[in-house]
Design goal:
Layout lengths: L6 E5 L1 H17 L5 H22 L2 E5 L1 H13 L1 H7 L1
Parallel strand pairs: 1-2
């Protein structure tokens, strides 16, 4: 969907590892729903970017491990919220 707005993602290897770590961590702390958790993590990670995409113009956005942590860490720290959101 981002490509329709000419926004492309450059997902780095450290981002893939961080996304997998977060999905596995949340699955361990809450109900283990397997890969569905990964889908939810990806949705939350890209939510803001998807909203902003029409205004960004044509560009490539690097997704790094730091980007992943910055977007998801506060959500993960709030146990009460994360059980409903993730």
């Amino acid at each position: 969907m981002l490509a329709t707005e000419k926004v492309h993602l450059d997902i780095q290897a450290d981002a893939v590892a961080e996304i997998a770590r977060i999905a596995a961590d949340v699955n361990q702390r809450m109900e283990n729903i397997g890969a569905r958790r990964l889908h939810t993590v990806m949705e939350k990670l890209l939510d803001e970017l998807s909203f902003e995409a029409p205004d960004l113009g044509e560009q490539t956005v690097p997704i790094t491990g730091t980007y992943v942590r910055d977007r998801l860490q506060s959500l993960l720290k709030d146990e009460d919220l994360s059980q409903y959101v993730l």
